[in-house]
TrEMBL record:
Disordered, as annotated region: 80-109
Membrane topology qualifier: Single-pass type II membrane protein
Pfam family, one: Glyco_transf_49
Domain of life: Eukaryota
GO biological process, alphabetically ordered: protein O-linked glycosylation via mannose
Name of protein: LARGE xylosyl- and glucuronyltransferase 1
Taxon lineage: Eukaryota, Metazoa, Chordata, Craniata, Vertebrata
Broad class of where this protein is predominantly found: Golgi
Similarity comment text for this entry: In the C-terminal section; belongs to the glycosyltransferase 49 family. In the N-terminal section; belongs to the glycosyltransferase 8 family.
Entry keyword annotation includes Transmembrane: yes
Membrane recorded as keyword: yes
Protein's organism: Chrysemys picta bellii (Western painted turtle)
GO cellular component, one term: Golgi membrane
One example GO MF annotation: xylosyltransferase activity
Localization of this protein: Golgi apparatus membrane
Chain's gene name: LARGE1
Length: 707
């Protein structure tokens, strides 16, 4: 042992049938409501007493109904004409609506909106919804805190990106953990026409910490209340989403609903689909005040400019203070306070059709929101049970969610043609570097890999570790792919100290790893292991990139650079904590090591690649070396060139665990061009060493020629 010191499938399937249009109209007339918000019931008219007051009232209702029917018929004629034109343009394929019934309890804010929702189905192509400009930016706000929520956000964003046709601007209210994870993820994802801004959730705690909250979301579940203060003052409107949302349609359709707001409507919400706010779920159940069933805040349309003018901050604070005097705490976080405000000010709400927030909670009435796949627009896993919630169609919803969960995020790096993108320095530099490569070079793929930006998700699982205060703590650093996953438990049993691992996985494999880890008592008992997912891209295993990712995210002053197939001896962690220096490491003299009782120094030799303990500020691995060959050798050479001293520890060792040859070793052995390119890269590396270190680097070239 040496110590060194110094962006799958579409889900929208529908058929368009003109015969359904009149049926929709009558469904609407029987179950809808008019502008005054009062339901019209046709059948009871005949049984009412014949009083003068009733006759006059009845006559007014009949006249209103006749006028409305004429308006509907005019709209139907226009719609038939539009659909006929659409059919003539696309005779072989149609996307449209299926028949479905909505009551106003689950419908939109007014009759016009309900009709649009019914006609539109899951596609806006055949409806009369207000169009969203081709390159109009859609703003989305999400509150995200912690490791688990960061994973959930990725799935939500994937579902949005899969369907989107517009530029997106995500406003993420995140704690320090989520910001570190998501900032790295989006920086390495490099999705065109997507902008990310972060807002410090920890700075907002004082705004809502005075509100006792029993909900599992904790203090972060209250932060949607302060978005008018948090988001930029020039931002007029925003869609606010919970992290447990999955989109099944283009988010632009939801953005278009803002155009339907009238008067003082500033909040777009879907009715709550459980009986929670009715107060009849159990004996002595006492929910916060709400209008009818209340509203669910998993999906919110906020007109920020109008809310600010209405003094929203003062409005919700006064309401919360008043209700907390009797309720003592919130049960559903911000949702309770939103509903209490709406109870007092119902004019604030534009009621969205329930398919914009199909709530899969216990005792849900969500089945009334859909009859077919084409009816679904947004799925909300708003039960603490998440995918384990009881629902008649839970298998279908689960499969829809899992599709995005395991979808290759690299496939979502799609350009939005015709929409100018903001200049991205990283993207421009990457394109410049790639343009300088010669595509006719037989080693082009090797050279290109050096510049490939791999999407990276840091701290995929919960991580919690504070280094020892004596500045001797050391982290084991390693990298692996799916075929070495079984070695994790053994390493965790042998090394009780902190570990930083970079895993090279596809999106689907990342979920397999998550299930494996969550099912392992050994892995779940450890909070000091940082798992960093580097997503697969390209044909080579980027071994040195993986090492650099794992090295970069340690919190101890020292790191033990190892490989996943080497098992540390028991007690090695504690041994290394007391045997670290400011310099050290080279070719081990094993004869001397077997009898040594004290550390001893050795000199560098060609092709030597020991496992070393170094300070965290040591040089990174050279990314030009991918797959098999020279990846560790080059790093040790770099350390020697920087005058690191190599010290052998006499009472420390590791055991190599047998495993099948890797795919890259097989390619190296069977592919002559692979070996030629590796030799070329070695020579170029040595030339770079000579340029950096001058005369001192000549010994590496000499040693290589003599070996």
């Amino acid at each position: 042992m040496l110590g060194i010191c110094r962006g799958r499938r579409k889900f929208l399937a529908a058929s368009l049938t003109l015969l359904f249009v009149p049926a929709f109209t009558w469904i609407y007339l029987f179950s809808g409501s008019f502008e005054d918000g009062k339901a019209v019931s046709l059948s009871p008219i005949e049984s009412q007493p014949h009083s003068p007051h009733y006759t006059a009232s009845n006559q007014r209702e009949r006249e209103s109904l006749e006028i409305r029917m004429r308006e509907v018929e005019e709209e139907n004629r226009a719609l038939r004409k539009q659909l006929s034109l659409a059919q003539s343009r696309s005779p072989t394929h149609h996307r449209g609506n299926h028949s479905k019934t909505y009551s106003m309890e689950e419908g939109t804010g007014d009759s016009e909106s309900l009709r649009a929702g019914i006609v539109a189905g899951n596609s806006s192509e055949c409806g009369q919804q207000p169009a969203v400009e081709k390159c109009e930016t859609i703003h989305v706000a999400i509150v995200c805190a912690g490791y688990n929520a960061s994973r959930d956000v990725v799935t939500l964003v994937k579902s949005v990106l899969f369907h989107r046709r517009n530029p997106l601007h995500f406003h993420l209210i995140a704690d320090a953990i989520a910001k570190q994870i998501l900032a790295t993820l989006f920086q390495t994802w490099m999705v065109p026409a997507v902008r990310i801004d972060f807002y410090d959730a920890d700075e907002l705690k004082s705004e809502v910490s005075w509100i006792p909250n029993k909900h599992y979301s904790g203090i972060y579940g209250l932060m949607k209340l302060v978005l008018t203060k948090t988001l930029p003052s020039n931002l007029e409107r925003v869609i606010v989403l919970d992290t447990d949302i999955t989109f099944a349609t283009d988010i632009a359709e939801l953005w278009a609903v803002f155009h339907k707001f009238k008067g003082q409507q500033v909040l777009g919400l879907v009715e709550n689909q459980s009986d929670w706010y009715l107060g009849n779920l159990w004996k002595n159940h006492r929910p916060w005040p709400a209008l009818g069933r209340g509203y669910n805040t998993g999906v919110i349309l906020l007109l920020l400019d109008k809310l600010r003018k209405m003094k929203w901050e003062q409005m919700w604070r006064l309401t919360a203070e008043r209700e907390l005097m009797s309720m003592l705490s919130t049960s559903l976080a911000d949702q309770d306070i939103f509903n209490a405000v709406i109870k007092q000010n119902p004019f604030l709400v534009y009621q969205l059709p329930c398919f914009w927030n199909v709530q899969l909670s216990d005792h849900t009435r969500s089945e009334q929101c859909y009859r077919d796949v084409s009816d679904l627009k947004v799925i909300h896993w708003n039960s603490p049970k998440k995918l384990r919630v009881k629902n008649k169609h839970v298998e279908f919803f689960r499969n829809l969610y899992l599709t995005f969960l395991e979808y290759d995020g690299n496939l979502l790096r799609r350009e939005l043609f015709g929409c100018p993108s903001e200049a991205d320095v990283n993207s421009e530099n990457l394109q410049k570097q790639l343009s300088e490569l010669d595509e006719d070079d037989l080693c082009y793929e090797f050279r290109r890999e050096r510049f490939t930006v791999h999407r990276t998700h840091l701290y995929f699982l919960h991580y919690e570790y504070e280094p020892a205060s004596d500045n001797t703590d050391v982290t084991l650093v390693a990298q692996l792919s799916m075929d070495r996953l079984q070695m994790l438990e053994a390493i965790c049993k042998h090394w009780e100290g902190p570990i930083s691992l970079a895993l090279y996985l596809s999106d689907a494999e990342a979920q397999q790893f998550l299930r494996y880890a969550q099912g392992s008592e050994v892995l779940m008992s450890r909070r000091n292991v940082g798992y960093h997912i580097v997503y697969k891209e390209g044909q080579f295993y980027p071994v040195n990139l993986l090492r650099n990712v794992a090295m970069k995210h340690i919190s101890t002053p020292y790191m033990f650079l190892s490989d996943i197939d080497f098992l540390p001896m028991y007690g090695l962690y504690e041994y290394l904590r007391y045997h670290v220096w400011t310099k050290g490491h080279a070719p081990t003299n094993f004869a001397k090591w077997r009898t040594a009782t004290t550390p001893y120094q050795v000199e560098w030799e060609a092709d030597f690649e020991p496992y070393v303990v170094v300070r965290r500020d040591c040089p990174e691995y050279d990314r030009r070396f991918v797959g098999f060959g020279w990846n560790k050798v080059a790093h040790i050479m770099e350390l020697d060139a920087q005058e690191y001293e190599f010290i052998v520890l006499p009472n420390a060792y590791m055991i190599h665990m047998p495993h099948a040859p890797s795919f890259d070793i097989t390619k190296f052995r069977s592919n002559k061009q692979y070996r030629i390119c590796l030799k070329t890269l070695k020579e170029e590396f040595q030339q770079d060493m000579s340029r950096r270190y001058g005369f001192a680097a000549l010994k590496y070239l000499t040693a290589e020629n003599n070996s």
